[in-house]
Write a structure and sequence with these properties.
heterodimer, A: 112 residues, mainly beta, Immunoglobulin-like, four-stranded antiparallel beta sheet, 11 strands, 0% helix, 58% strand, B: 111 residues, six-stranded mixed beta sheet, five-stranded antiparallel beta sheet, 52% strand, globular
């Protein structure tokens, strides 16, 4: 069966520090991969999605970037965090372009 | 780009009362998905609707896709405290297939 792992689960970072969130999927090949952000009490904002290795589409201009170095690995990064980067970051995968999404457990980031 | 409006934003009900959340789009949708997110958790897929006028049921949950495929609803009959959470609809971009979420409806159930 397919599983998705996302880490770290929680982190507190100072403003200006770097960020790296990692997500891996097991049990499937060539998944579509997504990074969403959810501010407290708000909806899900699509940040990046990828249909293959090295193929990243950015939805919102910001100080975040994403990379897909391997088929089932998706990384969200920042060189310098802003206060506004605080939120709940969710990685997700799907097998078809319009298929259901399977979410990871999420990473809760607080920037102080 | 593709957008979907979801209402209401919040709903407080007494246990046993019914609950409905609505999603509306200005454009015709190819399909619509519904997700539930428990407090502190991650969204979990509930269902996908594809056909015009489609109605699907999951126990006390009834999902409906409008005839024009521009709106959808999720109705919960006789809510229970386990129904607490935020319910999202999600639609696919016609060009890319990426999934865009509505703002969600947060349901609170008073025991």
């Amino acid at each position: 069966s397919q599983t998705i792992h996302q880490w770290p689960a929680t982190l507190v970072q100072p403003v200006g520090s770097p960020l790296s969130l990692e997500c891996t999927v097991e049990g499937t090949s060539n998944p579509n991969l997504y990074w969403y952000r959810q501010a407290a009490g708000r909806g899900l904002q699509l940040l990046f999605y990828s249909v293959g290795i090295g193929q990243i589409s950015s939805e919102v201009p910001q100080n975040l970037s994403a990379s897909r170095p391997q088929d089932r690995q998706f990384i969200l990064s920042s060189k310098k965090l802003l206060l506004s980067d605080s939120g709940f970051y969710l990685c997700a995968w799907s097998t078809r372009r319009t298929g259901e999404l399977f979410f990871g457990e999420g990473s809760r980031l607080t920037v102080l | 780009g593709q957008q979907v409006m979801q209402i209401p934003q919040y709903q407080h009900v007494q246990e046993g009362e019914d609950f409905t959340t609505y999603c509306n789009s200005s454009t015709t949708l190819s399909n619509i998905q519904w997700y539930k997110q428990r407090p502190g958790g991650h969204p979990v897929f509930l269902i996908q609707l594809v056909k015009s006028g489609e109605v699907k049921k999951q126990k006390r949950l009834t999902f409906q896709f409008g005839e024009a495929k521009k709106n959808s609803s999720l109705h919960i009959t006789a809510t229970q405290t386990t129904d607490v959470g935020t319910y999202f609809c999600a639609v696919s971009s016609s060009n890319t297939g990426k999934l865009i979420f509505g703002q969600g409806t947060t349901l609170q159930v008073k025991p």
